[in-house]
Structures are given as structure tokens and as C-alpha cells.
Write a structure and sequence with these properties.
By secondary structure, the protein is mostly helical. 68% of the residues lie in helices and 2% in strands.
Length: 358
């Protein structure tokens, strides 16, 4: 009698789970490196370090009124540094931004005074002039293909000469006439140059506008299609054009945003001091660009944020006023700015290399 053996099917036992294997392409970078990849992190740490330094080196900084003054100085730089930063992210920069501020203020002042009109007429015309200057810079850049350095250097020289020549021609002086007694002055001053009290400390309205503009610029960059266009044209305009980005519109509108910033700061200066010196503004464009660079924006474009220049402008205001409160020679201010600028460039370079390292 034969016996039939029935085979039992073998059961494959899965191997015990081991550590998850990952190659360099899928490995998640440490949190510290991911934070360093953010353009505003380095300048934030730098701003904290500068603040702590002057809190000890200049005890008057600890006073509320002193901090309000520092924030005011920072805001006058920061309002212009924001559109300049957006323009740099878009791959361009504007050397005429400093004198454009004075052009705007001179336009509003002389038009209102010489024609005996409500100051709001001068304010509106100054806005149109500022936007037109920005549009001209952008249009000439796009149509000729010239570098923005050359285009805006030419505009800088033109505006510098026009500011002085027309002011002397119209007023017979290098400064405009006092417009504080004209219709509409009080209302315009409330918007552009008023002061309000917080905890017994007087704060300039420009600090509020500065923060509002920073929040708006951040939202535009991170949450809108236009923000994507800015990064795209700054990274590679030919590739951006190939995927349907309106490069011409984006470039021109960014220069017009700089014009808007120049108008706003110009109106603040006019309604703060009632008159304008036609030779001012030269050199301020470098301060605005430096604040944006310290804030993490690259001159090559395609990289940066709106928050970084806020901290960059705060560092400028902190150093500018901190040196005075410490009782040091204010001539050291420019030296500090140079050190901060070089330090920011080196830090940005190190951050980029560290963040992209596998």
C-alpha cells in the first residue's frame, strides 16, 4: 500500500524591518540647514546682535523715546528698501532711487506754492511724476537690453541736475519755499508725517506705514502670481518668458514700485520739514540697496524676501542712532555700514553654499 505525502505550502516570512534606507536625493536636511536657507534668518540674527551690543554700549538706547527714534530712522530707510528689494529679486536695481525721492518732494512743493494750489494737487502730480520716472527706467531697460546700472545711472545724473537747476530757476534758491500755511497741508501731514503716542512715547506714523508695506510686500511675494513672476524673471527671464511670464510688464512695474516708494518718502520729507533742499538724496540709493543686500537679496536676482530688508533697515537705524547715543564720532557710521555690507555678502554666500550642500 503506497502512502501519498501531501506537501505543505511554504510560507514566506517577511524580513524584519530595519532602518529605512535613503539616498542623498531623498534625505531630509536638518532643521538648522533648512532655516539657514531662508534669506532673512541671517540678517535677523545680525539685527539681534547689533541691538544687544548697543543696549550695553549705549545705555540711552534702553529708553523708549530713543527706541522710537531708532525705529523712525529705520522706517525712512525701510520704506524705500522694500521696493528696491523687490526690484533686486527681479534681477535689477535702481541707482536713481535716492534723488527720485527729492524730485518727488520738489515737484509737490513747487507746483503747490508757485501756482498757489491746494497741496494735494502737488501730491498727486508728484505721484504721477514718480511713477513716470520708474516706467521710463523700466521701459528703456526692456527696449534696449542695457544693464540697469547704466540706465539708472543716467537717470540719476539727469534727476540730480534737474533738481538743482529747476529749483534755482523757479525759486531763485537751492531750497523750496515753506508750504506749511497752504490749503491741505494739515491733512497731508497727518498721513505722511504725523506722530502718535504709545505708552507715553511719541512714534512717527512712518513706522506704521513701514510695517504695513512690509506685510503687503511679503504677501505679494509669497501668495500671489505676481510674486512668482518676480522670482521667475529674476532667476532667468528667458525661461520665464518661455513659460508665459509677462517679463516686460513685471520689469516695468517693479521700477514703478520704486517710484511709488520714492514718492511716499518724498512726501514724508516735505511735510516733516515744510521745505526741501534740492541737492539732497545723493548717496541714499546706496543705503537702500545695501539694506536690501544685508536683508538677504542677491544682486544676481531670483533670491530674497521682504522681511529681510526690514531687519536690514533696522540695523542701519540702530547703528546710525546707536553711535550717537554711545557718544562716538558719527564719522564711524559709514565704516560700520561697510563692515555690515561685506559681512552680509559673505554670510549670504555661506548660507547659500551650506543650504545647497548634500
Amino acid at each position: 500500500m503506497s502512502m501519498t505525502q501531501q506537501a505543505t505550502p511554504a510560507v514566506d516570512t517577511p524580513p524584519a524591518p530595519g532602518p529605512k534606507q535613503s539616498d542623498g536625493r531623498t534625505r531630509e536636511r536638518p532643521l538648522a540647514l533648512r532655516l539657514l536657507a531662508r534669506p532673512e534668518v541671517g540678517v535677523f540674527l545680525g539685527a539681534v546682535a547689533v541691538l544687544v551690543f548697543f543696549l550695553f554700549a549705549a545705555p540711552p538706547v534702553r529708553d523708549g523715546s530713543s527706541m522710537a527714534n531708532i525705529l523712525y530712522q529705520s522706517s525712512t530707510i525701510g520704506i524705500m528698501a522694500l521696493p528696491v528689494a523687490l526690484l533686486m529679486i527681479g534681477g535689477e536695481f535702481d541707482l536713481s532711487a535716492g534723488v527720485a525721492v527729492i524730485t518727488s518732494a520738489l515737484t509737490a512743493s513747487m507746483l503747490s506754492y508757485q501756482l498757489t494750489m491746494n497741496v494735494w494737487v502737488g501730491v498727486i502730480v508728484a505721484l504721477l511724476v514718480s511713477l513716470a520716472i520708474g516706467a521710463f527706467n523700466g521701459w528703456l531697460l526692456v527696449k534696449t537690453g542695457l544693464p540697469s546700472f547704466l540706465v539708472t545711472l543716467g537717470t540719476f545724473l539727469i534727476l540730480q541736475g534737474v533738481n538743482l537747476a529747476i529749483t534755482k530757476l523757479v525759486t531763485g534758491n537751492v531750497a523750496t519755499d515753506d508750504i506749511s500755511d497752504m490749503d491741505g497741508f494739515a491733512q497731508a501731514q497727518k498721513i505722511f508725517a504725523s506722530t502718535f503716542e504709545v505708552g507715553g512715547v511719541n512714534v512717527k506714523i512712518t513706522v506704521v506705514w513701514w510695517l504695513v508695506f512690509a506685510a503687503l510686500a511679503t504677501w505679494v511675494l509669497l501668495r500671489t502670481k505676481y510674486g512668482n513672476w518676480i522670482f521667475a524673471v529674476g532667476g532667468n527671464k528667458d525661461s520665464a518668458r518661455a513659460v508665459g511670464v509677462p517679463v516686460t510688464f513685471t520689469k516695468i512695474s517693479l521700477f514703478m514700485l520704486v517710484g511709488f516708494g520714492a514718492w511716499f518718502v518724498g512726501m514724508h520729507q516735505l511735510f516733516s520739514f515744510n521745505t526741501v533742499q534740492s541737492g539732497e538724496g545723493v548717496g541714499q540709493e546706496l543705503i537702500y540697496i545695501a539694506a536690501a543686500v544685508i536683508g538677504g537679496c542677491l544682486l544676481t536676482g531670483g533670491y530674497g524676501s521682504a522681511i529681510g530688508p526690514v531687519f536690514g533697515a533696522f540695523m542701519f537705524g540702530m547703528v546710525q542712532q546707536g553711535i550717537v547715543y554711545a557718544g562716538w564720532n558719527p564719522d564711524w557710521f559709514k565704516a560700520f555700514l561697510g563692515v555690515m555690507l561685506l559681512g552680509a555678502v559673505l554670510i549670504n554666500l555661506w548660507v547659500q553654499r551650506t543650504a545647497t550642500r548634500r
